[in-house]
Design a protein that fits this description.
0% of the residues lie in helices and 50% in strands. It is built from no helices and 11 strands.
């Protein structure tokens, strides 16, 4: 069974950058899809980015394309979300997630395991 532990996040001014990390224990990410989602107060959960671990195929939500980058370190069994050019509307709790089998990689309901969440706040 996968356990996901997140780190990173915090406060940053608009235009700044942050990097989130997600370490898997219990199993490797091989054969999984690993995704990042976020949820702001009063809003629905939103897909941010995902990667098919073995194939290294990347996917991004429309609102973050060109600003965020998902990456992975196979040796460390860790996924990353590099967030650049951050905006106040990026403020949310960010979650990493893993799924053994998904039909729609952007659908959070299809993910089996979730990290604990980390707050990202973008403000001046």
């Amino acid at each position: 069974q996968e356990q996901l532990v997140q780190s990173g996040g915090g406060w940053v001014q608009p235009g700044g950058s942050l990097r989130l990390s997600c370490v898997a224990s219990g199993d490797t990410f091989n054969g999984y899809a690993m995704g990042w989602f976020r949820q702001a107060p009063g809003k629905e959960r939103e897909f941010v980015a995902a990667v098919w671990w073995s194939a290294d195929l990347h996917y991004y939500g429309d609102s973050v394309t060109g600003r965020f980058k998902i990456s992975k370190d196979n040796a460390k069994n860790t996924g990353y979300l590099q967030m650049n050019s951050l905006r106040p509307e990026d403020t949310a709790v960010y979650y990493c997630a893993a799924a053994k089998s998904v039909i729609t990689i952007k659908d959070g309901e299809q993910y089996d395991y979730w990290g604990q969440g980390t707050q990202v706040t973008v403000s001046s």
